[in-house]
Amino acid sequence: MNAMTPLVGEPLAIDLVNTLTAEGDLLEDPAALNAWLALEADRLPDFGAAASAKNAATAADRAALKAVRSVREHAAAAFSALADERRPPESSLRALAAAVNAAPNSTRLAWDGKAVTATVQRGGGATERLTAALAQAAIDLLTDPAVAKLRRCGAEDCVMLFVPAHPRRQWCSPERCGNRVRVARYYERRKAGR
């Protein structure tokens, strides 16, 4: 089991892509996927820990892990291409669209006594709904103008991506890479001053 905790807080699709780190795959088994889903429960309420506790059918299994890794692979290829100012691979765009289309949305309108409410539900099984939600998050970011801000972490040995809220942000996480880089610079300056 990889001891590194997944970073969360970036757009959902970037959080997913960042589960594949320089140290290894943070989604190495269904239990790790379920733990990541619990971290993302506020953005994936149908698949987080609370939903899994209520309904074992929503807990990720090996098939779900394989499907989520496929979405991650295609999202990573598309985001990586954009970060390098290249065109995203057509195969990745097709695969993300196919994942969304495998569990199409349906909308139900109702009157609650005061206003019209809309309830959106995805069709398909739990795995299809999960991968559709993740693929939709990737598509939403790929088509958002904010994707132009997408950056790679400034630490040499880090593969993480992020969308900076501040233009001077250099690292995926100030606590992880930022601190590591600052400490290394400090020791380099001390060594040079001797």
UniProtKB/TrEMBL annotation:
Stretches assigned to the Zinc finger CGNR domain: 150-190
Family matches, as InterPro entries: ABATE (IPR010852), ABATE_dom_sf (IPR023286), Znf_CGNR (IPR021005)
Domain of life: Bacteria
Gene3D superfamilies noted in UniProt: Jann2411-like domain
A Pfam family this chain is assigned to: zf-CGNR
Protein known as: Zinc finger CGNR domain-containing protein
Organism: Glycomyces algeriensis
